Amino acid sequence: MNVHITCTPEFSSEIVKEVVSILNKTKGFLEFSFDEPFTNEEISLVNPKFKTPKTLESLTFDEFFGLCQGYRTITKRKLNIQDDEYVVIVTSIHNLKDWFSAFHNKDIFIFGLDWEYYTKHDDKFGIAYEVVENIFQSQIELNIDDVDNEPNIHIPSIGCINDMCMEKVDVMFKLRTADICDSCIDRALEKNVNPLLLQHIKELIEGLRNEFVSSNRLSSKVKPEVVYIDPERNIKIGDKEFETMPLQKVLFIFFLKNNNGIETRLVSNHQDELFDIYKEIRRSAVKDTITNMFSKEKFGDPSFVSNKTKLNKALMNLLGKTLADFYMVTTFVIEDGINVYKIDLDDKYIRIDPKD
Description:
five-stranded mixed β-sheet, 15% strand
């Protein structure tokens, strides 16, 4: 399936080319191409507001989708864009809802600025993620016109591709977790999304996550600090005390103890080990608290995912983005497409004293 990515005339074509290059590193069902942007004359024919671009501050969703349709029409002879192919327009022009992006059928627009502010990293990573996110959302027919009643739009954020991100900085967690929750996977299966497309989407967001983290680490000389768990199960990272809720502490200690990773589909099989850790933290621990982590909540999202996301946020708040990457529970792909949750931290930085 072809995905044509272009931009409005004022936006940098070089950034869009970098986005396409990143996406094409992960081969699969989708094929991404950079297409030359509108000329000033062409875009003015589609929307006369572009005749005076210096006074143009924002557009409605319908106007952006109109640009996508106009691009299909104007470039039809040259590019021969088919109706079942995606058109993505990246822009520096604001939309009236102040969203990162939106889709209608196979037309997508993405606001291309300020990603460095929200992700503390290059714009290209955030834009590339939004391309994949909107393709997934269009495939599962997500109802973005009724956010409050759409069960697969997550408010608050849980670390899933369909998080609403009312707090815009939460988009960073989507990039770092590279996750699609069980409920959203179920929705994709119900909508008969092509399994090859679904697998490619998952591989794309995981690849973007790894590119994002690797690039971030290469640009920094920061080294991890020792994480120390004392016999009372208090946590210190370097010289900082890490205080968090009991269930999040359970997950943190569990993944430190299993730092080779646990298959994402098998985490619920480790409830006994999780409960053993919970008993070390709380004298009044009951098994149901752990069991309920893997039951379904209001919108069908496992509370395991919610607690994992809250744990990662707490680490970010304590350590900052660069150092927190070493300690966050994230998704990795190992051979044969098997996904694991793990903390990507060498054993030499982990010290867990036995319980008294």
